[in-house]
Amino acid sequence: MAPQIGSRTSVRICLDSIVTQPRAGKGYPLKRRKSYDKKLIMILDRASGIFAENGYHNTSVRDVAAVTGISPAGLYYYFQSKEELLHLILESCLSSLLGQIRLEVNGITDPSARLRTIIRTHLDHHQINKNGMRVLVHEWESLSGSFGKEIRGFMREYLHIAVGTFQELFPEKDPKELRANAFGLFGMLSWVDQWYRPERDLPIELLAEQFSGIFLGGRVPVKEQASSKGGSEEEDSAARWSKKTGPPSLLSGPGF
What we know:
The chain contains twelve helices and no strands. It has helices at about 10-20, 35-55, 60-70, 70-75, 80-105, 110-130, 130-140, 145-170, 175-195, 205-215, 220-225, 235-245.
């Protein structure tokens, strides 16, 4: 059974691969034993928190040692440098996000439904991994060599998924327009970290509908048309909201 959107299953799958598979070549993590994966998960979680709060360049390995309760010498058992630690955080974040997106869009042939699913999955992932997503947005360019190359590979894969979906939606557009659509989507999703607060803003499923509407306008996925009666409470709520509000005006508010 596939993990639910928002679950930590895909994160654990990713980290299991990090701690058990050897990497060849300079700049790659050393082979680690599976028995240490729980401690590595804790290190990545707390390190991403302090990187998100203070910034990668303003955080030392001693700072990471303080929040994890592990000595600097002990930390170097899990990574060889602070840059490798950043790489592990971003690899975990992007691998789990892309893995969940692949699972959720598998078998969805309608491109409008696929775009909605991508947006909802990304927003759900942000909610359970806020620190990791913030570090990704602000610090990915700090990686060099093989570390940076691997992270850029994940980003290119995500870009390929988004551009392919927009191409199916808008076959009349040229490649430059499709690329602009994809990066516009990524910018919008990345900016959520700067303003979204669950206690004062839209529920995440309705926010996903608003974001989807910016690109889709009045397009309704085939599946949604067929199941407009008897859907789940969450789906019915989102459908009512999109009908109530009409064309979205989210980006016309203050600060945009």
